[in-house]
Amino acid sequence: MAEDDDPVVDEVDVFLAKGLAENLYLFQYPLRPAGIIHDPSKVQAARFKPRHQKVELEVGIDTQSRQYAWSKGEQIALNVDGKGQEASHFGSGVMDKQVLTSTTVPNPASYYAVGMVRDGELHLTPVHGTVQMKPSYTYLDKADMRMKEAAAAADAGESSQDEEEDNPRAVTVRFARPETDETKARRMASYQYLEQQLADEQWVGCTVHGAKGPYAEKERQLLYCRATDFDASHLTRPPKEYLSMLLPEASEDNSEKPAMPSNVLSLSQLKNLSLGDQVKALMTNAKMMSFSQLLALLTSGVDPTAVLRTVQQVAMLVQGNWVVKSDILYPKDTCSPHSGTPAELVCRGRDYVMWRFTQFRFIVRKEVTSIIKLPHEDVKEIFEQLAVVRVNKGWEFLLPHDQDFVDRYPDVVQRQQMLWDAKYSQLSKLLKLAKGDTPKKGKESSHPGQEKETVIVSGQERVKVARQRARSRSQQNDPTSTSAQHSATLTNPAAAKTESADQGEPMDISSGVDNHLGNGELALPVGASSALAADNSGSKPSDELRTEVVRFCGEKLRGNVVLSMSEMKRLLLLRLSQCPPGDVLGKGVSDKLLEQSMFEAGAMQIQLPWPPNSDATPDQQKIFALAHVGDKYDKIREVVLEMFNESFKLRRNVITSKVQEAIGQEPNKHDMEKVLREVCMVKGGQWYLKGTLTS
């Protein structure tokens, strides 16, 4: 727009008056019709609480108006004041006044000012606060309270006529616990505490003056600036800075406020923290969450790799989800807030519960309590953090299994599994766990109330089994023992269900898993349907068994791509522990059958040149890999796997050059990264096949 179309009509000098800057309030009446104005002469009383900016006005009601219902007014006054009461709220026997109570407006009052124009000058005074006046009906609460007190007094009078002297009674004395900083912060942030602070502030009586009285005129003069001879017509600041002074940005309130409770986390405050502090604060408050939920709550654009590196410092992986570490919730040299148990013992018990959830979807609280030996309150808190109770099943882990994270970050999952193995070894010593106290992972019942099959073994059978196990161990230690002697299997405990009447307590061994790997064969878990066959058994496996083993090997190879013979045996052993009696895999799986099945499933054997000082067992040195999965990475995967036939470890630039030579073009960085993470693991700038770093 041109200047000719918008000419300057007048110039006005502006002055800032501060005579009433700390005492000027704007009153708003949102429920009052615009055409009705309160007459100041009808205000019978006024009270003010300056610290909380609370105002109360008692405004008279015109009882002679045609709209006034006299019978209703008398009834309300009778209910509130009663009959013949000395202290009355309505002095005239009828409802002749109403109380207006203020509520503070959330918008900043500093955005408003009162302007006065005099002699061509504009004088502005900032508004200190804005309040909205609404009717209050607290006098009705007084009426209800008076009626209840009268009824209680009447009941007490009737019962006291026939009541004898009270007999002595035992009184329980309880001492209040010392208030911690966390408890104090929660108390100060509660609604009850804020209401108590408001009630404790004393009312300051006020006098209402009319707008045209002498006192009002005197106060109105304070709305004008006294020093009008100061000239500030020339700007001494840049225009942008001047505009920012006129419309300042919302500044942070630095006044002292009570700390937020531990279970309340402000996302606006979270953004001001570093990545490590953000992750720690979120995990501490949520106790557990999936990796996708964690990324969604963090600042947008954060690097998932950095988050993954950070979250491992404050949390442990359980069923694909991250659970905050126990020492974060219970720091060293502290005690349980419920029972006073040292934090070290609570952490030990919580770690054991977390470990159990890495093995099972459901666990029984009674079994865990007998092992960790913590007070009831601490055990309840631990379980409520991690699980939810299911009828006839036990406690189920709170979050669903995050298979997507497990598939996307297998190296992290493997590292976390190693940490859990080390943690369990430590817990076994601290909690003095016997081998039968903690069952390994097994198949759980899918129907409520269904229990696992229990095998009862008498005392005589226990002695027999123990002797056979001792004989088996001695044969393993004797180098002259033959393969046939070593492959002798234990008596199947499933056949020993009879219990001698004079023997000790029966033993439940249905969940026990024997992880012993024999000389060329797998030992079945205790309670399985049959022993595994040895290589020299001479019996040909059935087509049904061969087909099932091939299917099993193909399933595990597609999920892991690279597996050693030792790891495949472990997975098969885990599968056997979950199989019901009579499963086809329980008929006997030899090393030869397992190796042939991996070849039939499409795997290739990597002739890895192991270093001379390697401590890997023969089964660990047999590496099988599935190069062709049926995706676009098959060619790159095949080249990478074949390179390990020539070298135990490789550098990335060497791998990239070889792949480029094989496919005739520079490989995509994303494709290379995916394949390398899928089949290898990196250490010290060198890439190794998965499962080959045994130390």
TrEMBL record:
Q: Which organism is it from?
A: Branchiostoma belcheri (Amphioxus)
UniProt GO cellular component terms: RNA polymerase III complex
Q: Where is this region: Disordered?
A: 150-169, 436-522
- Compositionally biased, Basic and acidic residues: which spans? 436-454
Q: For bias kind Polar residues, which ranges apply?
A: 477-492
Protein name according to UniProt:
DNA-directed RNA polymerase III subunit RPC5-like
Q: Which PANTHER family match?
A: DNA-DIRECTED RNA POLYMERASE III SUBUNIT RPC5 (PTHR12069:SF0), DNA-DIRECTED RNA POLYMERASES III 80 KDA POLYPEPTIDE RNA POLYMERASE III SUBUNIT 5 (PTHR12069)
The UniProt regions of compositional bias labelled Low complexity, in chain numbering, are 150-159
User: Which part of the chain is the DNA-directed RNA polymerase III subunit RPC5 C-terminal domain?
Assistant: 450-694
Q: Give the UniProt record's GO annotations in the biological process aspect.
A: tRNA transcription by RNA polymerase III
Q: Name the Pfam families for this protein.
A: RPC5, RPC5_C
